[in-house]
Amino acid sequence: MGMVTFVDETTSGGRGPAFGLEIAEERLTVRELIRRRVFQEVAEFNARSAPQVFQGLVQPEDTERVLNGYALRTPRRIDPEAQAARAQAAFEGNGFLVLVGDRQVTEPDEEIELPLGVEVTFLKLVALVGG
């Protein structure tokens, strides 16, 4: 079993705090890696006593973007399956890129190696302002 480190970055240079996730397999598809990451962040959000702001890979339904995440219009638990589907659609629609080490992966069903201590970067694409 190994620890995989996830980091969120933006094309404008922002970098969120790194967090780890135990993954038993040495190889996973990109789709499964995204799913596990989303399930972990949803589980942590749902476990909090009075969740107000979701800080995750993609925006949940019926939320609004705020400075440090997505504010729920009405307090509720987030459905991990629905959130994973939103994340998968965002990946396939180029809403974010996935880098394993320093190699970009583009196919959801591509199997990737997860060597011990690997860092997986989720690079969120930020629209350029101006122009």
Summarize the structure.
This protein is an alpha+beta fold. The protein has helices at 30-47, 80-92; strands spanning 2-10, 19-23, 27-29, 53-54, 63-66, 69-72, 96-100, 103-105, 111-113, 119-124.
Feature tags:
131 residues, alpha+beta, 5-stranded mixed beta sheet, 3-stranded antiparallel beta sheet, 34% strand
Strand arrangement in the largest pleated sheet: 2-1-10-7-8
Percent of residues in helical segments? 10-25%
Inertia-based shape: globular
Counted by DSSP, the helix tally is: 2
Stretches where pLDDT is under 50 for at least 5 consecutive residues are: none
Order of helices and strands: EEEHEEEHEEEE
The number of domains is 1
Radius of gyration: 15 Å
Structural class: alpha+beta
Strand fraction equals 25-35%
Extended strand count: 10
| Multimeric status of the protein | single chain
Summarize the biggest pleated sheet: 5 strands, mixed
The chain-level mean pLDDT equals 91
Note the gap between the termini: 48 Å
What does this structure look like?
The chain has helices at 30-47, 80-92, and strands spanning 2-10, 19-23, 27-29, 53-54, 63-66, 69-72, 96-100, 103-105, 111-113, 119-124. The chain has 131 residues and is α+β, with helices and mostly antiparallel strands. The protein has one domain (2-124). It has a five-stranded mixed sheet, with helices on one face. Helix 1 packs across helix 2 (80-92). The longest helix is centred in the N-terminal third of the chain and has 18 residues, at 30-47.
